[in-house]
Design a protein that fits this description.
With 404 residues, the chain is an alpha/beta fold. It has 14 helices and 17 strands. It is 29% helix and 20% strand. The strands form four sheets. Strands 3, 4, 5, 8, 9, 16 and 17 form a seven-stranded mixed sheet that branches. Strands 12-11-10-13-14-15 form a six-stranded parallel sheet, with helices on both faces. A two-stranded antiparallel ribbon has the order 1-2. 55% of the residues are buried. Bound molecules: nicotinamide-adenine-dinucleotide (NAD) and zinc ion (2 copies).
């Protein structure tokens, strides 16, 4: 089959690889009908989240049709339309039972103390071959597949694999509730769903920050008050908009590839931090390097954290869903501690939230498809990765069709 294969930092290829097979009785094999590219995939190719094993199939967002099931799978059979949860759990251990699927005790072959298991990710996450492919093996299929009703299209379902549950999880861990003023840092696909989810959880105001006008414009259509960090100082602007109090809640939807402002009043202040950011990046991701203008790491790994912490109201809450590798040890803890902030973070417990979000989509209350601004054939995947990597206008989120 055709699959996007990781070969090294800055080197992914569309290769022919063997079809996956049932390896355990709880497995299913799914024929993928749509997959997508996530900001997390960019961290891997840029090398800012290290540890990918060459040969791993990329991608963790997928929709498809069950091709084959193992003997222990009792809730799916060949022909069923399914959504694949990006985050994987066993459904039986104490963590899964408590809803902490991202910290499942059983599914990661590296052991119970190992990190979140998900497809197409570094060796320490499994690794499990990913879904930017024609077929995928799904472990513990009873928990990691979700039935899709006929009335939900692939494009409507695809954001439910990862970016919507992540945005929702961000609003949960940031403790967003009725009337809150929420700052969402980053308006990529995850940020867009963090904005939507914050409103769904009762936020009074959502202030959204990014440096890309097309992404901010989308955030504005969701009802967010938008701030371009290349035009104004986002911290000063947020304080002005909130009577100097700051937002109650903040969600980091940026991750380790955070950028510093390149123009505007915030750029001067950021330039003074250039040296520190360079040192941080060198320590966090020593092997990250751009190739031919692509896969450029963000130049300021802690930028979003500093801004979020500086602008939050006293005793406010920060929810971090942006991804940072284990080598990152630079969070501004002193600033946060002295203002009694609560900081929660992690990978989303997707199987816990997907069913209720799918229900919202079914009712028509949410049309998540709008985030998918590009639909490309899998054969054009490398070009699509590069456009998404460059955050080219109009390339907010790419859906990939293996059949085209
Ligand atoms: N925790 C989870 O379970 C989970 C799941 C999916 C994705 N993620 C992570 O969420 C993050 C966002 O994912 P995405 O797909 O939306 O990626 P993305 O790269 O498309 O979005 C990141 C956005 O942040 C903006 N940005 C950069 N620097 C900024 C700054 N200093 N302040 C504000 N905005 C800034 C960028 O312009 C971009 O629009 C990534 O780190 C990804 O790995 C986490
Ligand atoms: Zn993702
Ligand atoms: Zn488990």
């Amino acid at each position: 089959m055709k699959a996007v294969v990781y070969h090294g930092i800055g080197d992914i290829r569309l290769d022919s690889v063997p079809d996956p097979t049932i390896e355990h009785p709880t497995d299913a094999v799914v024929r993928i009908t749509a997959s997508a590219i996530c900001g997390t995939d960019l961290h891997f190719v840029r090398g800012t989240v290290p540890g990918m094993k060459p040969g791993t199939v990329m991608g963790h967002e997928g929709v498809g049709v069950v091709e084959e099931v193992g003997s222990a799978v009792r809730n799916f059979r060949p022909g069923d339309r399914v959504l694949l949860s990006a985050v994987l759990g066993c459904g039986s251990c104490a963590y899964c039972r408590a809803g902490y699927f991202a910290q499942c005790d059983a599914i990661n072959p590296n052991g119970s103390r190992a990190t979140t298991a998900f497809y197409g990710a570094p060796a320490e996450t499994g690794p499990f071959d990913g879904v930017q492919a024609e077929y995928t093996r799904v472990p513990y299929a009873h928990t990691n597949l979700v039935h899709l009703p006929d009335e939900i299209t692939d494009a409507q379902a695809l954001p439910l694999a990862d970016v919507y549950p992540t945005g929702w999880f961000g609003a949960v861990i940031a403790e967003v509730s009725d009337g809150d003023v929420v700052a969402v840092w980053g308006c990529g696909p995850v940020g867009q769903f963090a904005i939507l989810s914050s409103f769904q959880r009762g936020a009074g105001r959502v202030i959204a920050v990014d440096g890309h006008p097309d992404r901010l414009e989308r955030a504005r259509t969701l009802g967010a008050e938008v701030i371009d960090f290349n035009a104004v100082d986002p911290v000063a602007q947020i304080l002005e908009m909130t009577r100097g109090i700051g937002p109650d809640r903040a969600i980091d939807a940026v991750g380790v590839d955070a950028e510093s402002p390149k123009e505007g009043p915030a750029a001067d202040r950021a330039r003074r931090d250039d040296e520190r950011h360079r040192e941080e990046l060198a320590e966090i991701a020593p092997r990250a390097r751009p190739t031919e203008g692509h896969w450029l790491p963000g130049d300021a790994p802690t930028q979003a954290h500093w801004w979020a912490v500086e602008s939050l109201a006293k005793a406010g809450t920060l929810g971090i869903v942006g991804v940072y590798p284990p080598s990152d040890r630079f969070f501004p803890i002193g600033r946060a501690m002295n203002r009694n902030l609560t900081v929660k973070m992690g990978n989303g417990d997707h199987p816990r939230y997907i069913p209720r979000l799918l229900d919202l989509v079914k009712t028509g209350a949410v049309d998540p498809e709008k985030v998918l601004t590009r639909h490309e054939p899998l054969r054009d995947v490398l070009g699509a990765y590069q456009e998404f990597d460059h955050r080219s206008p109009g390339w907010l989120k790419v859906a990939l069709d293996p059949a085209r």
